[in-house]
Each structure stands twice: as structure tokens, then as C-alpha cells.
Design a protein that fits this description.
The chain is 18% helix and 10% strand. The chain is an alpha+beta fold. It has a domain of 35 residues. The protein has a two-stranded antiparallel ribbon with strand order 1-2.
Length: 60
Amino acid sequence: MPVLYNKDGQFLFIQAQSKPFEEISEGLHPQVAEPLKQIVLISLRLKQSTKAGDSSVTET
């Protein structure tokens, strides 16, 4: 997992599967440690590409 720090020295990391972090950011796990509650979640959703004329594939 890549570890990064922004210009303010805040710890950043990239996580492929973010479901647990989504749940924490939505407040579904109030018992987690305070640093986890302070995580800012940025979620990227990639658009699925299709071959021209192929309408059988849908985006999620």
C-alpha cells in the first residue's frame, strides 16, 4: 500500500478496497478510534468502456 504525506504533513494512503472506510465515514462504526473517524475518504469510480456498438455492458 503506497504511503504518502501531504504538504501539511497529514498521512495519506491509497486503499484498493475501501468498503470498511466508507462505513466508518458514514458513521456506521462509532466505536472506532478517533484517528479513524478523522479519515477523509475520496472514492474514485471508473467508467467501464465498451466496444463500439456493444450495448450489452452497463456501467455500475
